[in-house]
Amino acid sequence: MTGQIQHLPDLGGLEPEDAKSVLRSTIREHRATRSARRRTDAGDAIGIIGSHLATKRADKTVALYASRPTEPSTGALLERLSAAGIRVLLPVLGDGLKREWGDFNGLSDLVERAPGRPPEPSGQAFAMQEVASATLVLVPALCVDTSGCRLGQGGGWYDRVLEHVSPDALVLAVVFPDEVFNIDEFPVPREPHDAMVHGALTPQGVNMFIP
Ligand SMILES: Nc1nc2c(c(=O)[nH]1)N(C=O)[C@@H](CNc1ccc(C(=O)N[C@@H](CCC(=O)O)C(=O)O)cc1)CN2
Ligand SMILES: Nc1ncnc2c1ncn2[C@@H]1O[C@H](COP(=O)(O)OP(=O)(O)OP(=O)(O)O)[C@@H](O)[C@H]1O
């Protein structure tokens, strides 16, 4: 699967940090053009595919994220996982940019603490290490390549958190189908601290990179 985003930028000659920044702008612009209908459809498909995956694997705890408007929507998946009796951990940033987790307790419990920030659960916050209890870790990304290198929003939140994931957990980036790039055609710029993922969850299915 190769990216169909038109006009992927030429990253040749750029340092990885600058190349990431250019690529983030391109993908954010492209995400902003997606219609509400296509976003809803993508969220519905991610809900079905992600919940089938977790129930088939018998995951008891899944780490996920509460999506912001242009991200692949996770609302349907949150509700399906919860209805299946699976514990769902969501990032809690609190008043600052803390790296903690909270339990998903229904969509109505999620609060956007400031405009543009991801919605968060209101209940007890657990330390970053709580993610070690998850056997399936679904992370936000702007894109990913087939070697498992992901590009996030640039805060380094997930790179630091992924250090605490169980070595047995399956880690998937949640992206739109055209955000999965073939490593031979368009490698995602990589820095030494970047944590790799095993595959991608898209509205078209699960794409495993690492067996
Ligand atoms: N849905 C979601 N949750 C996530 C992430 C993510 O990429 N997506 N993160 C991934 O690492 C972590 C934190 N991500 C954050 C993303 C934005 C801002 C933020 O402050 N945003 C701007 C608004 C920008 C905008 O309007 O788009 C702001 O409030 O000024 C903070 C943390 C954890 N939770
Ligand atoms: N494990 C780490 N330890 C210390 N600093 C880190 C670590 N991971 C990332 N950083 C720092 O965080 C900043 C953002 O990193 P990067 O551009 O890789 O974020 P990202 O993976 O795209 O975003 P996110 O993880 O928030 O989705 C960089 O300045 C980087 O140096």
TrEMBL record:
Catalytic activity, as annotated: (6S)-5-formyl-5,6,7,8-tetrahydrofolate + ATP = (6R)-5,10-methenyltetrahydrofolate + ADP + phosphate
Stored InterPro entries: FTHF_cligase (IPR002698), FTHF_cligase-like_sf (IPR024185), NagB/RpiA_transferase-like (IPR037171)
Superkingdom of origin organism: Bacteria
Residues that bind ATP: 20-24, 150-158
Needed co-factor(s): Mg(2+)
Annotated residues for binding of substrate: 71
Pfam families: 5-FTHF_cyc-lig
Biological process per Gene Ontology, one example term: folic acid-containing compound biosynthetic process
GO molecular function: 5-formyltetrahydrofolate cyclo-ligase activity; ATP binding; metal ion binding
Keywords for the protein's UniProt record, in alphabetical order: ATP-binding, Ligase, Magnesium, Metal-binding, Nucleotide-binding
EC number: 6.3.3.2
Family: Belongs to the 5-formyltetrahydrofolate cyclo-ligase family.
Listed NCBIfam families: MTHFS_bact
Protein name: 5-formyltetrahydrofolate cyclo-ligase
